[in-house]
Design goal:
The protein has 127 residues and is of the alpha+beta class. It is 31% helix and 23% strand. Strand 4 and strand 5 form a beta hairpin.
């Protein structure tokens, strides 16, 4: 073989190896970037799109809707105020609770029954 042929083969191999090395470096940089963004060590500004996927628990400081009034479902009470459609009701002698009439208006003093509890709101209907 001539020296020029050997140099041509060497040049082709060197160029190919440089391309492969460049691609490997690019893949490594992209992999590191993705890991950094999704890592817990990433700055909060990098992770803000992931905040909605976290579990919101009371022991982590999350304060949710009080579900205690759901115990009144099916229990009767009376309307303290006119309900047009929202007002106050008394159930089992407890302090007045906010409630919404399921259908129409309810006069103060009318006997009502709690039908459901949604979005921190009692729903009542006339008995």
């Amino acid at each position: 073989m001539q020296l020029s042929g050997i140099l041509t083969i060497f040049a082709i191999m060197t160029t190919t190896l440089l391309w492969i090395f460049g691609i490997l470096i690019a893949v490594a940089i992209v992999t590191w970037g993705v890991w950094y963004i999704f890592s817990p060590r990433a700055p909060k500004s990098m992770r803000r799109h992931m905040e909605f996927s976290t579990e919101l628990r009371n022991d982590h400081g999350f304060i949710g809707v009080d579900m205690a009034p759901s115990e009144f479902i099916g229990i009767e009470g009376f309307a303290i105020t006119d309900m047009r459609p929202a007002g106050k009701v008394a159930v089992e002698g407890r302090k007045p609770l906010d409630a919404v009439a399921v259908m129409g208006f309810i006069s103060a003093g009318s006997k009502v029954k709690v039908t459901r509890y949604e979005n921190a709101q009692l729903y009542v209907e006339v008995v």
